[in-house]
Amino acid sequence: MPNIVVLVKRVPDTNARIVVSGDRVDLSAVKWVISPYDEFAIETALQHKEADGGTVTALTLGPADSDKVLKDAKAIGVDEIVRVWNESWNELDSNAIQSALAQAVTDLGADVVYCGKTAADTGAGSTGPGVAERLGWASVSNITDASFAGGITVTTPVEGGSAKVSVLGNAVISCDKGNMKVRKPNVKGIMMAKRAQVNVVSADAPASSVTIVSQSPPPAKPAGKKYEGGSSAEEVARLLRDEANVI
Amino acid sequence: MSESVIIAETSKGSIAPVTAELVSAAIALGTSPTVVVPCTDASIADGAGYDGVSRTIAVKGDCFANYDASSWAAAIDAAAPSGIIIAAATPQSKDVAARVAARRGLSIVQDVVAIDGMNLTSPIYSGKAMQTVSLSGDAAVSVRANVFPAASSSAANVSVVDQSGDVATAVQEVIARASERLDVAEANIIISGGRGMGSPDNFSHLEKIADVLGAAVGASRAAVDTWDDIPHSMQVGQTGKTVNPNLYIAVGISGAIQHLAGMRSSKYIVAVNKDADAPIFSHADYGIVATWEEALPVLESALSSMMS
Ligand SMILES: Cc1cc2nc3c(=O)[nH]c(=O)nc-3n(C[C@H](O)[C@H](O)[C@H](O)COP(=O)(O)OP(=O)(O)OC[C@H]3O[C@@H](n4cnc5c(N)ncnc54)[C@H](O)[C@@H]3O)c2cc1C
Ligand SMILES: Nc1ncnc2c1ncn2[C@@H]1O[C@H](COP(=O)(O)O)[C@@H](O)[C@H]1O
User: Fold this and answer.
1) pLDDT digits (tens, 9 = 90+) for A134-145
2) What's the gap in Å between the CA of B157 and the closest CA on chain A?
3) Are B103 and A133 a contacting pair at CB < 8 A?
4) CB 3.0-4.6 Å disulfide test: which of B26, B140, B184, B228 passes with B33?
């Protein structure tokens, strides 16, 4: 029966206003949530368990304040919750994060890992394929559907449409929104999550070679031109050609 | 000068134009690039010669017939020299670049929109902030389209390397998109409709303009959630696709923060909305305060006569 791991990350609520103070984003006032695509990863992991049995472990890398998203995952229905952290870590780069997560996944004895297509803070989409490479596993990214009869089969976008792909062997699978409905925590789940213990583990991470220089608000766009009435569409079409040169 | 490796972007069996922009990005990083072309037929690499590029490597292998991240990364890694890895910030190239970086024990910086020496800037928090990082040593970098100028083409000096890779996934079936139209993730021009379109049938008005411009048709989440006929694959935004076209035309879309997250970095934004106070107008280069019923026919006929 599969040992299933799902990666979850704590991020600011996507409705949160992002404030920059000095040269860093100030997140002291935001509400924190599970990164939205990770909810699809949890759902896929739980569906996998329902098909094949086994256990689902939610794994996060972060300091103690990340325990909340693990408990949220527990309330939704995962079996175990694990946090990997080392007090010496600070602003880890992708190489460090992936190395530490890969080590934790190995230590947990996982057979398959689900994660989000991108985290809502980084927007990167690097972690799934990067962890897979470090494990020497297959990876499929941005899946919109999964089925588990006779092995894992996923639907993933390809040029011109989508493809049904079967996964051979161990894999890291990153999840897009797709058509699935994610389950929400129920009262029993929330009660269980309150009492749940987070298993904190350690790992090694190589020194970071990418360092943050600054964070800043997005560049303000110069005010655009605004016209009243449908007939102005003709003028806009002309400007798209003569001023913007985009058509 | 330090070295870099450009992973060429290919589309429908030829070199995609964004590859020429990657050459400019490599030069902005102060590196001397080698272009690596993953392919099943090495002749496509003839189209991957640029001013400033002295060497093009066609990495030829059966594994490149379908996308399989693991075998692609192994084959590209084996054929490519060392140096900073540069790829286009398309879903597939970001994915393969992440694996090649991990294979080499390197970090990766995705979605770069500005380069200043070894400082790279990308959007974070869905574009609500920007982050600048500095590299010490080699890394992988993905670069957004339409940011850097295209390097001029020149004759390619191609060497061919045969690679065989063990695929870790098997394609069972490819499901072609119902419409022949481009996907929003692949398009240079996008026209999107929101709840303000009133019904899914009215998207035909957007399709007509898309046909004139060779554009893709997108949608807001409200449109996707309200109407079964508008598939999620069309959704632009936080929980849909992030797009970075030259031109984005938003019709009947209010401009919620989650929609902006997916399209705010478009080079030019046009908004058509009947509400002069709709938030989308603060992000539009050209705003038209009108109903789509009034504006779209005018836009369509103006564009048709310009394009013919
Ligand atoms: C976690 C989360 C994730 C989300 N992800 C996304 C996402 O990926 N993408 C996304 O788009 N949204 C997303 N949303 C939803 C988002 O918050 C908005 O609800 C949505 O974008 C609104 O869509 P809309 O602009 O089409 O509809 P509305 O907000 O209803 O706006 C309709 C607009 O049409 C205009 N209008 C009406 N009639 C006409 C007419 N005849 N002619 C011209 N204009 C007209 C109105 O003035 C109005 O501005 C997300 C929300 C959450 C909470
Ligand atoms: N610190 C982390 N802890 C746990 N999972 C993570 C972490 N960072 C990234 N992930 C997972 O990897 C996915 C993609 O993240 P990213 O590569 O940052 O876009 C996320 O949606 C998570 O599932």
Assistant:
1) 999 999 999 999
2) 28
3) yes
4) B26
Which residue from B minimizes the CA distance to A131? B102
Chain A, residues 75-94, CB within 8 A of chain B, namely: 93-94
Q: In which domain, by residue range, is A195 found?
A: 3-201
- Mean pLDDT, to the nearest integer, of B44-59? 97
Task: Give B231-247 pLDDT, tens digit per residue.
Answer: 998 999 988 898 989 99
What pLDDT does A14 receive? 87
Neighbouring C-alpha atoms within 13 Å toward the C-beta of B297: 4
Q: Which of A116, A111, A167, A155 is nearest to A135 (CA)?
A: A111
- Out of 3.40.50.620, 3.40.50.1820, 3.10.20.600, 3.90.105.10, the CATH code matching B2-162 is 3.40.50.620
How many other CB atoms sit within 10 Å of the CB of residue A202?
12
Residue A141 contacts residue A165 (beta carbons within 8 Å):
no
What is the B211 CA–ligand 1 centroid distance (Å)?
Answer: 24
Task: Give me B238's structure tokens.
Answer: 């936080």
B135, B170, B270: residue with CB nearest A209: B135
Contact A62, A83 (CB under 8 A): yes
* ipTM > 0.85 for the complex: yes
> pTM of the predicted model, to two decimals?
0.90
The Cα–Cα gap between A217 and A220 comes to 8
Instruction: Give me the residue spans of the domains in chain B.
Output: 2-162, 184-307
Decide: B256 in ligand 1 pocket, CB within 6 A: yes
Tens of pLDDT, residue by residue over A49-62, are: 999 999 999 999 99
Euclidean distance between CA atoms B33 and B29, whole angstroms: 10
